[in-house]
Amino acid sequence: MLAKFYLFCYVLNKFFLDKVYYMASLLYDGFKHELSLLDNSSLVIGSWLAYNNVDSHATIKHIRNGTYQVVDRVAPHYHAPNPNGPYGSFGIIRFTVPSHPGIGVHSGRLNAKYKPGPQHATMGCIRTTDEAMSQIKMYMVKSPLTTIKIINNSGSSAMSSTQRNQYRVYHGMRTYVL
Question: Which H/E stretch holds residue 146?
Fold first, then answer.
């Protein structure tokens, strides 16, 4: 009987307790131009440079402050990997913005002639670095993303911050995936 109990405990630990999933989330601060990955306790796992610079031809001017549900919870939506492409090397993490399907977080346009990398305009998305997307992609496998919270992203604060930071040289923050 004791052997069956130990076997039960082993199976429980091996197949269930090792697979406990904690929910993670993203936080985008439009004033700081910072995207942060948060664990289930809201502790910051990593932070990276990010912009919500929206092309003048887009149907949205910026993503409004609020909390949005993530669509791609355990892996980014696939796009052909290309650091200079529209979605970067790791695809896009889409979230629900009413009346604007397909908005998300991605990298790309690393070597664009005008505002390369995260500052390059999108059709409404938040653009960050390939490093950020790589780290987030690895983390979301074990801790699915649930939401993204957008703060300080009014049109005027985002624009004034963009102008203020346009000559800033940013060196990505070192991050550690737990």
Answer: strand 145-151
- Integer Cα distance of 10 and 7 in angstroms: 5
- The Cα 96–Cα 100 span in angstroms is 8
* Token couple for 23: 């929910």
Q: Is 149 helix (H, G, I), strand (E, B) or coil?
A: strand
H/E stretch holding 156 reads helix 155-165
pLDDT by residue (tens digit) across 42-73? 999 999 999 999 999 999 999 999 999 999 99
The per-residue pLDDT for range 60-109, each reduced to its tens digit, is 999 999 999 999 999 999 999 999 999 999 999 999 999 999 999 999 99
Q: Are 106 and 81 in contact (CB under 8 A)?
A: no
CA dihedral (22, 28, 29, 35) in degrees, to 10, reads 80
**Do the Cβ atoms of 93 and 70 come closer than 8 Å?**
yes
